[in-house]
Structure formats: structure tokens, C-alpha cells
Write a structure and sequence with these properties.
The chain is an alpha+beta fold. It is 35% helix and 20% strand.
Length: 233
């Protein structure tokens, strides 16, 4: 699996050392939450495996909870590179500061997903507003694709690209965690959900064809929401 360090772009070794030192201190949650995206390591923000643990006190990154394997992490943290369409426009309007992305493949090796952690201003309700936008998109006839897929060479995500996106989902955090999580999903083999012919598409067939991808994206966004909340503890 390929991993590119986010910290290298955000200040180099000095910042990495400072981040590790800060992480060891007993910093109040209200102070640490807004800066954890800069202070946590790449491996911490985007663990090698992630899933929904059965035990509330367990970590989403615990191997026994694994549902997704990480393929790679983007070095480009700009909002423009990480998001697309209405999602990008909305995030920028709300004051998007950065977008951290990683691509995962599920344990079956059939579904690929790119996860975006959208960093928003601490003041105001930007994270909640971004979450509401993402929730609304999930019920649209043609939902916004939300996240720009991160292609990772020499992995199962080597052919993952924008025209293979089948589903999207997302959620907002808020309070001391000024983040939203957006996810786009597709098939590793490139199969796309499409408009079904005739009556097959007229009575909810298209929605049904897309729904598994939408459900997976939403579930993964909620997993990362829980993961970020855990990191703040």
C-alpha cells in the first residue's frame, strides 16, 4: 500500500516533532479538536484499515473491526483538488480550509472509495451546514459526486477515476470538531450504475441500482466521523 505524508506538506520534520509532542500532552478537547487535522499523523488520520467496531470503546482502526483497506493518501490538500461540483462550491462558500483525502478498497476487493475530510472554520456552523448539504444530496435524483477520486498506482485503485463514481455520502461533525466527511464510491472493475431502460428505470429502478453504492458511502462517512471523534478524546 502506498502512503504519502500529509505532514511533509504542512511544515516538515519540525512540525511532525511538534505534533507528536502536543499529542502526548493532556490538551483539553476544545483546544485539540480544531487542530487535530494538522497534529495527527497521516497514519492516524487515515489508518491502514478501518471499520465499524462492535464495541463502543474500540477504535475504528482496530484490525478486528477492519472493513476497508487503505490504498493511498493524497499529497494535495487543496479544496479545489479534493472536491467537485456543488460540493466544492458549497465547501468554499463555507470557508473550506483544506481537504484531506485517502482511497480505500473494501475487504472483498470489489468496491473502492475515496474519503475526504473537509476542514472548515471553527467559528459558526460551517461543519453542520456542510453536513446538511451532503445529507440533502443523498436524496437527490442525481446526487452530486462530491469527492474527486484519488487514483493509486499499482493497487486495486489504479483505475479509479471520476467517470466511475457510483455513489456518494457524507456527514458533518461540528462544535470542537470543525470537519465534514464526504465519500464517493465505485466498483474496482469499473462497472457503473446507469439509467436502466424503459420501465426498469421509471419506477425507482435507477435509484435501486445506485443505492448500494450510496449506502456504502454514507456508512463509511459515519465510520470516519466516529474515528475523528475518537481521536479528539
Amino acid at each position: 500500500m502506498i502512503v504519502f505524508g500529509l505532514l511533509g506538506m504542512l511544515g516538515g520534520g519540525a512540525l511532525a516533532a511538534h505534533a507528536w509532542s502536543n499529542h502526548q500532552l493532556q490538551v483539553p478537547n476544545g483546544v485539540y479538536g480544531p487542530v487535530l487535522w494538522r497534529n495527527e499523523t497521516t497514519e492516524s488520520l487515515f489508518p491502514a484499515t478501518i471499520g465499524n467496531p462492535s464495541d463502543y470503546n474500540a477504535k475504528a482502526s482496530d484490525k478486528d473491526a477492519a472493513e476497508w483497506n487503505r490504498m493511498g493518501v493524497s499529497e494535495d490538500t487543496s479544496c479545489s483538488a479534493g472536491l467537485s461540483g456543488e460540493t466544492k462550491a458549497t465547501a468554499k462558500k463555507l470557508g473550506c480550509r483544506a481537504v484531506l483525502r485517502a482511497t480505500y478498497v473494501d475487504l472483498t476487493g470489489e468496491m473502492v472509495a475515496t474519503v475526504a475530510i473537509i476542514v472548515l472554520p471553527q467559528s459558526g456552523n460551517s461543519a453542520q451546514d456542510m453536513g446538511e448539504f451532503l445529507d440533502d444530496q443523498q436524496s437527490e435524483d442525481v446526487p452530486d459526486a462530491a469527492v474527486v477520486p484519488l487514483t493509486v498506482k499499482s493497487t486495486l485503485a489504479a483505475k479509479w477515476q471520476a467517470n466511475r463514481r457510483n455513489g456518494m455520502g457524507g456527514t458533518g461533525l461540528g462544535g470542537d470538531l470543525p470537519y465534514a466527511v464526504a465519500v464517493t464510491t465505485g466498483a474496482v472493475d469499473g462497472r457503473t450504475s446507469s439509467n436502466l431502460p424503459g420501465d426498469f428505470g421509471s419506477y425507482g429502478g435507477n435509484d435501486s441500482d445506485r443505492q448500494p453504492w450510496m449506502d456504502a458511502a454514507k456508512a463509511l462517512s459515519e465510520t470516519f466521523k466516529a474515528h475523528l471523534t475518537y481521536l479528539e478524546r
